[in-house]
Predict the structure of Prolyl tri/tetrapeptidyl aminopeptidase.
Amino acid sequence: MKYFRLTFSFLALLLAGLAVAGATELYDRLIALKGVVSVEELDKGFFEERYVVMFDQPLDHKNPSKGHFEQRFVVAHAGFDRPTVIVTEGYGGARALNPRYREELSSRLGANQIFVEHRYFGESTPSPRNWDYLNAENAAADLHAVRQALAAVYPEKWVGTGVSKGGENSLIYRMYYPQDVDVTVAYVGPICFGVEDGRHEPFLERVGTAEERAAIREFQTEVLKRRKELVPLFDEYCKSKGYEFRTNIDEVFDLCVLEYPFSIWQWGTAVSVIPASDSPHQELLDHLTATVSPDYFAVSEEPSFFVQAQRELGYYGYDTAPFEGLLSIKNAKGYLPRILLPDDARRIRFSDALSRKITAFYKTNDPKVICIYGQNDPWSAAMLDTTAFDGKQNMKLIVEPGGSHRARIKTQSDEVQNQIWKTIEGWLFGI
């Protein structure tokens, strides 16, 4: 009798588990996909169902024998008969777990949303962390593998999209796999040609009005003039936060001051919030650290972005000439590999082959792509070559007047928004 009861209890638990697993058609289809390791239900939020999926990927898609890792992606389900938006994220995927997260494309189109966390970020980090396999081609192949796995689940049209590094990622993905998506909407995605690209510094010398630039320069100069008083306060602040650096605190202070105008313009901060030059020391420091957090230059447990920047994505430099005699450093050349890279990535050397390949692809092809940038965003200095849009029937370039890195479809004028949605919906639905 005891054996019967145990067996009955086991069967009851097993059947209960099967009932949960078979609760929805979508769950059953996801868990059955080749490569899927696990499927976990999430709060459905704005969708009918949502799941976080762990998916097996090769470290090197050209040589799977090199090993595997698990990549996280989030499935937000609107309907099997709806289009699907694939978010080509450039970083970690924690924000996609939020039940309120929904891309504007997914909302407008009533679309399914597949958010793919980038390899070497968040829960998609291989162990051990071998930097050899962190490159754009492998990242695009990751997206392709997810797309192929979900092809039968979501057979309608697909839209690729991403923001910033994710925007660049969407362009790279479209280049490597042009048939995977029907439409690409890339937001503020830069294409850089060097670790210190060289176009951002002159951009900062002409962006905005002369009065705005003067206010920014005045703040930088005043902060540097007060370095004797401010650096000890800055050091105390960094220690209180537990930040550790690969250089001395004076250089970190200098770099924060040099980064300041880039951050102001990138995020569209009004110059009216800049403290007056005669403000107390602490007020100046508080504004500086609120605009440029020193942890940007701190040792990070996840330096993956800077490894990619050093290898092929590129980045920007700083012009130190206007502050000669006020800085503790002679110049900022080579700051990224010296300060932001871990020791095991120092051997990586930059190649502009990827950026040249991207540019060549979009110059010689005309996929259904919309690129959106903000006029005042320093990253727009490295926007996709504008000549790639010349004479094209499909490719569209939108530059938001006075816009920042926050430029989206919803931030455009009503007229431009209507034009964009009419184009996208025409491509997808023939409207």
